[in-house]
Specification:
Blueprint lengths: L9 E3 L2 E4 L1 H4 L1 H9 L2 H6 L8 H7 L8 H4 L4 H10 L5 E5 L2 H13 L5 E3 L4 H8 L6 E6 L6 H17 L7 E5 L4 H9 L2 E4 L13 H9 L4 H12 L9 H14 L4 E6 L7 H12 L5 E4 L13 E7 L14 E4 L2 H19 L22 E3 L2 E4 L8 H10 L6 E7 L11 H9 L3 E5 L11 E8 L14 H18 L4 E6 L2 H13 L4
Parallel strand pairs: 3-4, 3-5, 5-6, 6-7, 8-9, 8-10, 10-11, 14-15, 14-16, 16-17
Antiparallel strand pairs: 1-2, 2-11, 12-13, 13-17
Helix pairs in contact: 2-13, 7-11, 7-14, 12-15, 13-15, 14-15, 17-19
Length: 521
């Protein structure tokens, strides 16, 4: 790893990027030769090539959405005052539109409950916490997906049982003209429209990120101020930290370091790396594999093909970054959101990929799930063809079979709070294989479906299920259907998937950790 203080840092508006030139000093010059800083800030849709131009039209609003989002502030202040006695804020939606708000609330120490899966555990816990004093924020790009529909139905039943009027307890964040906007009208709920030129993980500084965070008490005006202060630097060729970061990310991937390990440096903003990883993976179409690692020396983060990037809060002048990473990004949260958006778009331009392309649809002709291959303690093993049937053998097959250009994606369709220990599988499996291993919670993290990747899916039995009011299924059945849908989609893309089902979650997680700890190449 480079000495982060050996060369000059790129600094603007309190945000500093150290180490970028050490990755590839010529990368930034090549982007400047293409006039990227001026073209990107001018929202030039031709930056990514002719094939990407159509998608880029109408998707570059993130460049200055922090300006338009100021129009939300009076409405948010009025809404917060009106809902002042509703002090439990619950955000329901898919991970693409909830992650930024969760990061804002978490980084700024504000309480926000996020429901983005059908696991009954978090839903039951949320429903038990002051339902009569809860405001439910429904967020989405179009209509209600089945999971968010289930969350709304559960809360409407809880309010009906408790007595309050449901319309006062619902706030909808969605584009004008969408099905979700129509639902807001039907419910008599408050609708806050989103920026029509921003979508997915790019929408951190739009209503998707700001509305739930503001209702939870986060100082969102400061976020917009921080982004605005940085914006003045984005069309510059020098002293432009976002350009430096994007050039380094693109050059690293083009030069064979396609895995980017995002690590916390202990100065705050820990959760930001998860949002940055989601953005970077989407923007580069799988050319960059983001890995949320525990530290720069964590298993899977130290290989030669891995670029480590430390992320943290603002540092005093002359203070060294908190971790010995290849690149370090330190600064206030609002500036970080704009920096990473610009850097992701810049890396995509360097790699000449479309940052706004939609992923290809999977085949619908995937086979149904087979019966379990074996049962080992609290774990049922569903091994793919050609893999050993036993748990230890299947895990060894999974890690030993990874080629030099492959990685392993682990997705747990479990309770990310009660079953949080399952995340310990990532470093254990990475230590066993020496290849990058990612970990995430389903369905927010289905894992990369492009490139050379093997998948480990973990599911679990539910002992305390919840019905979905007005639907012929329960939350656990919905969760199981989502996991099965992910498996079929991956099979339709001819991806190998090992599924491990925990018949008893706590015992199963402990058994998996023990077995993975004994798995070595």
């Amino acid at each position: 790893m480079s000495d982060l203080l050996a060369g000059p840092a790129d600094i603007a508006a309190g945000l500093a990027v150290h180490g970028a030139d050490a990755v590839d000093r010529s990368a930034r010059a090549a982007l400047v030769a293409r006039d990227l800083p001026a073209r990107l800030t001018a929202k030039d849709p031709t930056l990514w090539g002719v094939g990407a131009e159509a998608a880029a039209h109408g998707r570059l609003g993130w460049v200055d959405t922090h300006c338009r989002s100021r129009d939300l502030l009076p409405q948010l202040a009025e809404l917060a005052a009106e809902l002042g006695d509703l002090d439990h804020v619950v955000l329901a939606g898919d991970g693409g539109v909830t992650l930024a708000a969760e990061v804002i609330a978490g980084c700024l120490g504000r309480p926000l409950t996020v429901l983005d899966s059908a696991d009954p555990g978090p839903v039951r816990a949320a429903l038990a916490d002051r339902p009569a004093r809860t405001v439910l924020v429904l967020a989405g790009q179009s209509g209600l997906d089945p999971t968010t529909d289930a969350h709304l139905r559960a809360y409407r039943q809880a309010w009906q049982d408790a007595g309050p009027e449901a319309d006062r307890h619902v706030v909808v964040v969605a584009p004008l003209g969408s099905e979700l906007a129509a639902l807001a009208d039907e419910l008599g709920a408050v609708l806050i429209p989103t920026d029509p030129e921003v979508a997915g993980p790019w929408s951190a500084l739009t209503a998707f990120g700001l509305v739930p965070a503001a209702l939870a008490g986060a100082p969102v005006t400061e976020l917009l101020d921080e982004a605005a202060a940085l914006a003045d630097a984005l069309d510059r060729e020098r002293d432009n930290p976002a350009l430096a970061l994007g050039a380094a990310l693109g050059a690293a991937a083009a030069g064979g370091r396609s895995t980017v390990a995002l690590v916390p440096d202990g100065t705050g903003l820990d959760g930001l790396r998860h949002w940055a990883g989601a953005l970077l993976g989407a923007a580069t179409g799988g050319r960059v594999l983001p890995l949320a690692a525990e530290s720069p020396d964590a298993p899977g983060a130290t290989a030669p093909e891995v670029l480590t990037v430390g992320i943290g809060g603002a540092l005093a002048p002359g203070v060294a970054p908190g971790v010995a990473a290849d690149v370090a990004v330190n600064g206030p949260l609002g500036a970080q959101f704009l920096t990473w958006s610009y850097a992701a778009a810049t890396a995509a331009a360097a790699l000449r990929v479309d940052p706004f392309a939609e992923p290809a649809a999977a085949s619908a002709d995937a086979p149904a799930d087979p019966p379990p291959s074996s049962v080992d303690g609290a774990v049922e093993v569903y091994a793919p063809e050609g893999a050993p049937a036993d748990l230890a053998g299947a895990l060894r097959w999974l890690v030993d079979g990874l080629g030099p250009d492959e990685h392993l994606a682990v997705t747990a369709h479990l309770d990310r709070f009660a079953d949080a220990a399952a995340a310990g599988l990532r470093p254990l499996l990475a230590r066993g294989t020496g290849r990058p291993v990612t970990f995430g919670w389903g369905p927010r993290h289905p894992g990369h479906t492009d490139g050379r990747v093997r998948h480990l899916q973990i599911t679990g039995a539910v002992t305390d299920d919840l019905p979905v009011p007005g639907r012929p299924y329960t939350f656990a059945e919905l969760q199981a259907a989502q996991a099965a849908g992910d498996r079929r989609a991956l099979a339709g893309r001819e991806r190998q998937v090992l599924r491990l089902h925990l018949t008893e979650r706590a015992a199963g997680v402990a058994q998996l950790l023990d077995t993975a700890g004994r798995t070595r190449t």
